[in-house]
Structure prediction request, 113 residues.
Amino acid sequence: MSDCVFCKIIAGEIPSRKVYEDDRILAFYDLEPQAPVHVLIVPKEHIGCADELDEENSAVVGYIFSKIPEIAASLKLTGGYRVVNNCREDGGQSVFHLHFHLLGGKKLGLDMA
Ligand code: AMP
Prediction:
């Protein structure tokens, strides 16, 4: 999508601090970290949000989760971490390209909402 910030990051048109990349996904540091370690993991295919997942395009979500242990280990998140997805307005989504926040580096609070 031409006006999508994360598509531009994937295309290299906007710089990012990359943590992991392969042909299907990219992980990079969040610009405004909310924890000592705050990384975003995105599919390279543009999917707007969790609400747009279906049987055709959702395999990449499993793939992302299969890579999270490796990404977390590379970030030395040995004590654990949190994975968050915000979906649309009520979920607090601000960038409409499916992404998972990987948060850690301290004992996180328990507030979920
Ligand atoms: P969400 O609110 O779940 O849509 O999360 C979007 C996240 O993207 C926020 O945490 C922003 O800080 C982050 N963000 C927005 N633009 C950039 C960027 N150019 N590079 C890195 N992170 C970004």
